[in-house]
């Protein structure tokens, strides 16, 4: 049917419908890879023989517009999988800390005092760990305390003590850092950085450890979802450091009978979503020594790659987390029941 303007709308509709169908088949071919073809060469080949009704510059602009639209749409529809995800890497990552392997066939545990208080205090625990055949020790030099008036850790001196312990006892040493400017200093003293629950979303700190090649034990924020936990690890991987270990350490709930609520479901969920290893801290999650062994067994049964727990030669005099650190005697029993 020809309109007032002299156009045959029916015919036009038929042609434009066919054009839309052609565009769809074109999109099915190009998809997200179109950006990467050598377009200049392609257009000159395509338009070399063209003698149609339109200017070649217009045709080229039209096709470039289609390219942009289809690649933008592809980007919006399909973000690349996260580096932490199983979709990116299906095989389990094994993180090596000194001689220990976290994420391999055998569980790898990290025990040690809450805070580094003195050489002899850490050395006493180190000798015990060594006797038990363990390969790593932990101890806080920078302590993120709730009250500014509580013991804040020995700082650099604490790191120096840990380095001495490493040399004397042959154990790999792990300690928390709380600021990006600690990375250089700690790199020279430690075998792995710990990022504490309070800093799980300290993105500048995550990026700073991401630029290092030292392994990172990343603890779950006390109010962090699994998704946020995965994204926090992604910050580290995105900077180039793939040696990240998740550590579930309990989350805040209404329950008061434990210090935090140990989220056992986090273990299989993290293992399913990510190729990175998973540890479970039974000290800060439960805060109760009498249930730590049972919770550790549950964590291992759920697929955890190892346990973290605090041990102190004389918990009653500890400068932090006095009530929840195991004595060497308590630790003996605990250790026997989880191996
Ligand atoms: C710790 O492991 O010493 C610690 C402070 O734990 P969190 O960051 O899980 O509270
Ligand atoms: Mn502690």
Question: What do these coordinates show?
Answer:
The protein has twelve helices and ten strands. The protein is an alpha/beta fold and 339 residues long. It has helices at 9-30, 39-47, 56-77, 119-131, 156-169, 182-187, 203-210, 226-238, 266-273, 282-286, 289-301, 328-338, and strands at residues 95-97, 100-102, 110-112, 136-138, 172-176, 192-195, 216-219, 244-248, 278-281, 306-310. Helix content is 42%, strand content 12%. The protein has two domains: 9-75, no CATH class; 95-337, Aldolase class I (TIM Barrel), CATH 3.20.20. α4 packs parallel to α5 (156-169) and α11 packs parallel to α12. It is elongated and about 95 Å long. The longest helix is centred in the N-terminal third of the chain and has 22 residues, at 9-30. The strands form two sheets. An eight-stranded parallel sheet has the order 3-10-9-8-7-6-5-4. β7 (216-219), α8 (226-238) and β8 (244-248) form a beta-alpha-beta unit. The chain binds phosphoenolpyruvate and manganese (II) ion. Pfam families: DAHP_synth_1. One of its GO terms (molecular function) is aldehyde-lyase activity. Residues 99-335 form the DAHP synthetase I/KDSA domain. This is Bifunctional 3-deoxy-7-phosphoheptulonate synthase/chorismate mutase. Keywords: Transferase.
Runs in which pLDDT lies below 50 for 5 or more consecutive residues are: none
Q: Give helix % range.
A: 40-55%
Roughly what fraction of the amino acids lie in strands? 5-15%
Q: What would the average pLDDT be, to the nearest integer?
A: 94
User: What is the number of independent domains?
Assistant: 2
Described by strand count, sense and barrel closure, the largest sheet is: 8 strands, parallel
Structural class: alpha/beta
GO molecular function, one term: aldehyde-lyase activity
Protein name: Bifunctional 3-deoxy-7-phosphoheptulonate synthase/chorismate mutase
Organism: Salinicoccus roseus
Keywords: Transferase
């Amino acid at each position: 049917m020809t309109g007032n303007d002299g156009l045959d709308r029916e015919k036009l509709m038929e042609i434009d419908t066919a054009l839309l169908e052609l565009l769809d088949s074109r999109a099915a071919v190009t998809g997200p890879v179109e950006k990467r073809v050598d377009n200049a060469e392609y257009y000159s080949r395509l338009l070399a023989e063209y003698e149609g009704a339109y200017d070649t510059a217009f045709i080229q602009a039209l096709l470039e517009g289609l390219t942009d639209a289809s690649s933008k749409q592809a980007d919006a529809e399909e973000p690349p999988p996260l580096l932490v995800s199983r979709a990116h890497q299906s095989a389990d990552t094994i993180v090596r800390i000194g001689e220990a392997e976290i994420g391999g066939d055998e569980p790898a545990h990290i025990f040690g005092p809450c805070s580094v208080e003195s050489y002899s205090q850490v050395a006493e625990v180190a000798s015990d760990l060594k006797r038990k055949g363990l390969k790593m020790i932990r101890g806080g030099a920078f302590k993120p305390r709730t009250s500014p008036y509580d013991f804040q850790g020995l700082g650099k001196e604490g790191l120096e003590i840990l380095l001495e312990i490493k040399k004397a006892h042959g154990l790999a040493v792990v300690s928390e850092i709380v600021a990006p400017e600690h990375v250089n200093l700690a790199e020279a003293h430690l075998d792995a950085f710990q990022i504490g629950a309070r800093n799980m979303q300290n993105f500048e700190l995550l990026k700073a450890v991401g630029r290092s090649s030292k392994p990172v034990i990343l603890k779950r924020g006390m109010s962090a979802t699994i998704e946020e936990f995965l994204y926090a690890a992604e910050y580290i991987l995105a900077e180039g450091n793939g040696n990240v270990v998740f550590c579930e350490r309990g989350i805040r709930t209404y329950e008061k009978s434990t210090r935090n609520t140990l989220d056992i479901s986090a273990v299989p969920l993290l293992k399913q979503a990510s190729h990175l290893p998973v540890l479970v801290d039974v000290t800060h999650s439960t805060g109760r020594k009498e249930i730590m062994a049972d919770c550790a067994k549950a964590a291992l049964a759920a697929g955890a790659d190892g346990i973290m727990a605090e041990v102190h030669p004389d918990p009653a005099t500890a400068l932090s987390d006095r009530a929840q650190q195991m004595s060497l005697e308590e630790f003996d029993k605990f250790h026997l029941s989880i191996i």
